[in-house]
TrEMBL record, chain A:
<feature type="domain" description="ABC transmembrane type-1">
    <location>
        <begin position="187"/>
        <end position="372"/>
    </location>
</feature>
<feature type="transmembrane region" description="Helical">
    <location>
        <begin position="19"/>
        <end position="36"/>
    </location>
</feature>
<feature type="transmembrane region" description="Helical">
    <location>
        <begin position="42"/>
        <end position="63"/>
    </location>
</feature>
<feature type="transmembrane region" description="Helical">
    <location>
        <begin position="130"/>
        <end position="151"/>
    </location>
</feature>
<keyword id="KW-0813">Transport</keyword>
<keyword id="KW-1133">Transmembrane helix</keyword>
<dbReference type="InterPro" id="IPR000515">
    <property type="entry name" value="MetI-like"/>
</dbReference>
<dbReference type="GO" id="GO:0005886">
    <property type="term" value="C:plasma membrane"/>
</dbReference>
<dbReference type="InterPro" id="IPR035906">
    <property type="entry name" value="MetI-like_sf"/>
</dbReference>
<feature type="transmembrane region" description="Helical">
    <location>
        <begin position="101"/>
        <end position="118"/>
    </location>
</feature>
<feature type="transmembrane region" description="Helical">
    <location>
        <begin position="316"/>
        <end position="338"/>
    </location>
</feature>
<feature type="transmembrane region" description="Helical">
    <location>
        <begin position="253"/>
        <end position="275"/>
    </location>
</feature>
<dbReference type="GO" id="GO:0055085">
    <property type="term" value="P:transmembrane transport"/>
</dbReference>
<keyword id="KW-0812">Transmembrane</keyword>
<protein>
    <submittedName>
        <fullName>ABC transporter permease</fullName>
    </submittedName>
</protein>
<keyword id="KW-0472">Membrane</keyword>
<keyword id="KW-1003">Cell membrane</keyword>
Amino acid sequence: MTSASLTLSARGVAGTQRFLAYAITIAALFALPLASHADGPVVAGMSQLLLGAALLAGIGLLIGFGVQGGRLLDLMLLAVSGVTAILLLRFVAAYPGTVKGGFWALVVALWLSSWLFVERLSAWDVTDRAAKRAIGLAIPLLFGVWVLVLWELLVTGFGVPKILLPAPSDIGLRFASSIPTLWADFRQTFLKAVLIGYAIGCGAGFVTAILVDKVDFLRRGLLPIGNLVSALPIIGIAPIMVMWFGFDWPSKAAVVIIMTFFPMLVNTVTGLASADRIQHDLMRTYAANYWQTLVKMRLPMALPFIFNALKINSTLALIGAIVAEFFGTPIVGMGFRISTEVGRLNVDMVWAEIAVAALAGSAFYGLVTLLERVFTFWHPSVRG
Amino acid sequence: MLNEQGPQKARSVIDIRGLSLTFETNDGPVHALSNVDLDIREGEFVSFIGPSGCGKTTLLRVIADLEKPTGGEITVNGVTPEEARLARAYGYVFQSSALYPWRTIADNVALPLEIMGLSASERKERIARNLDLVNLGGFERKYPWQLSGGMQQRASIARALAVEPHLLLMDEPFGALDEIVRDHLNEQLLKLWAKTDKTVVFVTHSIPEAVFLSTKIVVLFPRPGRIYDVIESDLPRDRTLDIRETPEFLKIAHRVREGLRAGHSYEDS
């Protein structure tokens, strides 16, 4: 019956079909056990009752939608979904690995109501800019929360071994209890290797691009070599950099420099060539010299390309620094932690480091994007 | 009726003798210009008209030192085109406005002034004066992409005028605009020319535009690009759009059309 409701909801984007799916799910709730112990008896109790009540409230709301929709009802749907999620999480924590069909039917119901809420939310007709922005933020945020909840429910509900995939709650606990370690790793890998390598790599790529653009033999000689360097595998370069620059962060920064140099070089060279003939003729009629043409026309014109490279490099730099730490490092750093904790089967710590990397990487990328919007506000892709 | 006083008395601004320009291409040499003779005097409004490929834009670009001739002689203000360009002797208006989207209208007009190294106060004064001249006062802080095509082209004219050249070179500046806007800008351009007394060289493929604006119309032929006819217009200098209905206007337009037709039949044969 759970699968029946699934197919129905997948097909039924229209409201009536979803109501039907709800009804089937509710039927499943009462027909199937929520969980069982090894010796057989059906587990029932307060949580089951609460879940049923919460869901019934949800159905009541849905019927309300049929009569007349409203933002208050939408928000109540959100509240009911939230309470149901919390109850399901508590229930699964009490009966890990032993939940039954009725439980999964409720998970499906939760999924349906969250889906409905997001759909309702995106249909909200707001004119206020701040409210619009808040809704734009709320939708991906809700989606992220839902992914975490589903992850927790699935992993705990099916009793997946922690070594394969720990639940988000385990990762969260490990994160909270290891903040000093995580901070030390972050400082070593991100604040030193990534940022310094990124700055030097992007800066060198930019300056080289200007030289390559000005001097023709460099274009013919240096660009192919740059291309060759960019094709070198990081796995091969990292140990060599460790031999050259030692175990500490400079060798990781060197790997980051090699990885970020070429995207910046190629993008800037392309950007400098992006001005068309009329633009060049215009500067010529003003008898502008090389530097005036460069600063007043060609560099602003190249900015969208340069920011493209800065964005690509923001993620490349983090990957490069973490992987480089697999090849010899002092006993601190995100890559070092990942490689050693995997060996000790502390997979939750590995995930905590991954979370740090994801947060830092997204924040870095977001910052570059923000700068891009400030500096290339005039570009058709930004001004909208 | 300045030209009735005799353009011969005015100083020669552009003097072209036996000019030719051959582009070497993969398909062999292309004779863009062949044996062109032309004399343009101070205060004249000269239009180059002809079918595409006749070299009218190329001729303008040679005057502006954007192309180098391969034969013959040309002087601009008595010196070579390159010296004239380096002395910023002319303002050039392109087919598209070529305004920089990251600069406001005022800052776009300031661009050549910054390159010339003028002081901030001088720049400010020239920006205000020239934007007023093209009726764009009040749009200083707008960005080009916030303005219509006609306003953008007016801003680019203000930018060319801000250099304060005696010579204005315009390469189909209104070609991309619709007829009504073009008529309006043509009228404004004539007023501006009367007010500033500059020499204007104007490339177009529109007969009414050429006849309405010019004191002298140069009809060019393609393959190789050369001058077919030079028509001195006897229309009065202060013209309104109504003049296009008069017999005098139609007579000149007819002569221009005859010339263009001869060029086309050459092309078809």
